[in-house]
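Quick one: Tropinone reductase I from Linum tenue, structure tokens please.
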Amino acid sequence: MAEARWSLNGMTALVTGGTRGIGYAIVEELAGFGARVHTCSRNEKELNDRVLEWKSKGLQVTGSVCDLSSVSDRKKLMETVSSLFDGKLNILVRSGNASLPREFIHRIARSRLICISCMWYWCSHR
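--- reply ---
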């Protein structure tokens, strides 16, 4: 159990490419500290297996199949995340080979958002 001072209870997070490697570890850590996490992957079987694994550990993780190189998939992901989190997203982590265009980040980041890229940079929105 995480110390209360590190609690992310009430926070929401989107982690792209969260089914493997660093993304997988980030999903587990964020959810382990109490955040509600949504992740996406192009591989449906792998995604479903990971979501079941996290749920068996009592973690609040959901997932959807998404290819971020597709405009229509990005739009669908934004709608899904907005619906799941009632329009509130606190943490956005870009993991794997996911390319997040500025329009994606600007449309989803209507309030304070911590944005982390596991490949290139870390920035704080606003």
